[in-house]
Each structure stands twice: as C-alpha cells, then as structure tokens.
Amino acid sequence: MERVIFHVDVNSAFLSWTAVDELRKDPTAVDLRTIPSIIGGDQKTRHGIVTAKSIPAKKYGITTAMPVAEALRRCPDLVIMPGDFHLYHQESMKLMEILHSYSDIVQQASVDEAYVDVTENILAMAASEISREEMARFAQSLAATLKDEVRVSLGFTVNVGISTNKLLAKMASDFTKPDKVHTLFPEEVPRKMWPLPIEDLFGCGPSTAKFLKGKGVHTIGEAAKLDLELLKGLLGEKSGEYIYAASRGLGSDEVHTEEREAKSYSNERTVSHDLLSADAKEAEDIIRKLSESVTRRMERDAVYGRTVTVSVKTSDFRRRSAGLSFDESFRDANKMAETAIDLYHKLTGGISGIFSTGVGIRLIGVGAGNLDDGSFRQMNLFEWGKTREQELEEEATRRKQEDLRAEVQLRADKLKSMQDALDAKFGKGIVKKGINTR
Q: Can you say how many angstroms the Cα of residue 74 is from the centroid of all Cα atoms in its chain?
C-alpha cells in the first residue's frame, strides 16, 4: 500500500493562538477570530506589517505582509494585537503532542504545520488488504478525529490535507478553510489541482509565477503539459525540474523525524464507531492486534518492558489511561494482551467506569514502558533452552566455517609446494596460469 500522509496546518495560527489566550484570560472577551483583526505592528504608530489576519479582515482585502498603515486605511476599526512568540511556541508544542499521539512519524515543518505519516494507523484500522477507496475513507475518518480533537482540546482549528506524498498533502490542506479535511490523491490531481492558478502551486514563487504567466502559463494544468526540456530552458535546470514534477503531483513520501531514544512503545487504533459495553469482543480483538504490533517493534529493537498501559479516547475527546507494572520485564504478546484487556475492562466497566457516564470509546491504545535491554532478567527454563540452542547452533556454524577455511588453506599449501618443486626441477616460471577459451 502507498504511504498515507497528513499535512496539518493551523488556521491563522498567530491570530488564533492569541484569540484563544485572550479568551482564557477573559471568557467574556470578543473572539478576535470573529472580527476584523490582525497580528503585527503597532496601532498607534501605524508601523510594521501584518503577520496574521482574521477571516473578517480578509474581506477588506487585508493580506499578510501588508503594511499596517494600509490595513488601517482599508479598515479603520481594525483591531491590532502584538506578536507573542513565547505563546506561539507553547501552543505549537501542545499541537505536536496531539500529533505524536496519532503517529510516531511526525515532521514539524514550521511552528504551525507538520506532516504526519499515518500509514501504520490506517493498516491497523483495516482487517486485511484494503482498496484505495477504503484507504481514503479510513484516512478521512482519522483526519476528522484529529481535527476535532485539536478544536475541542486546544480551542483552535486546523486544516488536514491527505495524500500519498507531502506535496499533495500540503496542497490539499490549503483548500477551503477553516477546520476542514481535504484529500488530493494522484488520481484527483487533474480535477482538483490543475485548474488552480499557477501561483497556488506549492514551491512556485511569485517571480516564477509571474514569468510563467508572461509565457501564457496561467494554471497548474498548463504547466503540467509543458515539456521538461522547455521548462528547464525557461526556468533553469533545478526550477524547471521542480515545476515539471510538482505540477504533475510528484513529490517525496518520506516524512523525516528526529530519532529519539524510545522511553516507551505504543500503538493506537481509532475505531469507525463508538465502542460501548456490548462491544467487548471487538475491543479485545483490537487490543490483541495492538499488543502484537507493540511486541514486534520491541523485538526489532531488542528491548523488554515492565509496565503495560492501556489508554482510551472517549467520544467527547477525553483521554483516560491505566497501567500495571511487573517485577520482571517481558515482551510476550499474549501476556501483554491479557493484561491490557483486564485494564481496559477495569477502566471502562463498573459503577465508576467510563461506560457509566454514557460516552463511548473512540480510540484504544496499548503501550509498554519501563524499558530495559533484558540484561537483568531472570530467564525461565524455556527461554534459557532457546538461548542455549541458539548458542550451540552458532558454535556448530563457526566450527564448520573454521574447518572449511583450514581445508582451503591446506589445498593452497599443497599447490604451492608442487609449484616450488617444479620450479626447482625445470626452472622458475615453468608453471603458468591457464586461459579458459571456451
């Protein structure tokens, strides 16, 4: 299956984050997002430029990078708020925390946007091999859940673009705003992307767009029809190659993330419908699959865990979790699954459990923590037997290799002795290498 990549972009980030902060301080305050407002510059001196704008401000023709004096001329009642980069950093960190709960593969592109590879999540949602249509449906459901969680938990909105590469995901997230989910898969490029003006192509700067328009190329689709060599001749090799590929929807599907030493291993699955107490069997099946996925990754990295955790997200976007620690670390999928199932029922059942509040379960996660490399584990007899068997097999293989090397060396020594004897009897150089003429 192709990669499934989200591009998550905060709507009017600086202004939204400022609005949320103002409402936290005073819930009766006017929401800056609902009135003509901007971030940047100074209202008294009329200096500076617009760094963010509200949707009502956009209706006055106010754009980012516009001088504040011009923005005030267009809208005298415009509200201007100063920038607060400490606040932006805090809100950005909160967003990234949520994104990391959906995937381990997150690439932060800037303070207010990131790429998220959710391929594993989509595969986990499917019982078997899925079609493109099913993949798209699962992806849209997951993106909608992510988008809604950000809005409910953090108070601001994001757009989520979905595709099989980063370029198209980025393009999709720039479609209709705010608080939307859009797809732009390769087969949708002719219908959704090609009619757009050339300046809307990500990576096509204003000067390049102006130049192409001067040559009669007004849409992305018109650029896509041009020959590569022609574009390289017009724009130079690198720019020509980029416009040629990008206009056809070609881009990288590698989401780069910083490698960090894992403090825990976990996997989550968002379900297509809210799980209730009657869906215990379905929940248990999900937990078993998640446990297998977690232990496979632990085996790959040769680590063991001592703590099993279960986390759930309810239909009102609240997270709850429970955990249990053992005296000795392990990475057995069955033990993890049985422990996690027991924790799930304790978390959701009973008079004080989640189901007693009338909400359902939207997401289930299973994790392993308190990791070690197994150095101090007391292996049981079965594990010791497997280890000893492996040691014996390795020893036997090593001996065979040593015997083979010794035999090869012995033959080489014999040939050398024969050559020395012939050289001594008939003269040096009597023996020469043969040539295979066949």
A: 41
